[in-house]
């Protein structure tokens, strides 16, 4: 087996479908300048756009297209393509087999998904799984522990962007609503310390 790409991350569609998580993940990857390498597939992008369209049926095509366009712009060389389906394992949810197959093909170190249960049990022995499975909250906390200064920079970018929109916002609540309870608390504390 080939060695894993260090700090390589493959976010599942449920991460990209969330506006909150999409912006945090992308900004952290850009801000850490290669400390984290975010990878993607066309299948994952299509699934994310479909989920967003379902939530926002009246949005313009530009809003939907921008999801993929931003990923392509910031991570043009990190698309995983031409990967075979991995028939050597048993899938709990075959719909997610493309995510596993892409990760194995590209030697990804971490899959980030909020559907961990769909990936559990793929291998009879969990130690055989070649990548780590993390929730969005777990990965964001890992990023915060490894690059706290970068998280502060992203926090300030998020805050400035929201201020310019001139609409009420609450970064902590948005993270909490996205299921990132621990990271939301981390950001709440950082906001108090930075202010």
UniProtKB/TrEMBL annotation:
<dbReference type="InterPro" id="IPR002716">
    <property type="entry name" value="PIN_dom"/>
</dbReference>
<keyword id="KW-0460">Magnesium</keyword>
<dbReference type="GO" id="GO:0004518">
    <property type="term" value="F:nuclease activity"/>
</dbReference>
<keyword id="KW-0378">Hydrolase</keyword>
<protein>
    <recommendedName>
        <fullName>PIN domain-containing protein</fullName>
    </recommendedName>
</protein>
<feature type="domain" description="PIN">
    <location>
        <begin position="9"/>
        <end position="117"/>
    </location>
</feature>
<dbReference type="GO" id="GO:0016787">
    <property type="term" value="F:hydrolase activity"/>
</dbReference>
<keyword id="KW-0479">Metal-binding</keyword>
<dbReference type="Pfam" id="PF13470">
    <property type="entry name" value="PIN_3"/>
</dbReference>
<dbReference type="GO" id="GO:0046872">
    <property type="term" value="F:metal ion binding"/>
</dbReference>
<keyword id="KW-0540">Nuclease</keyword>
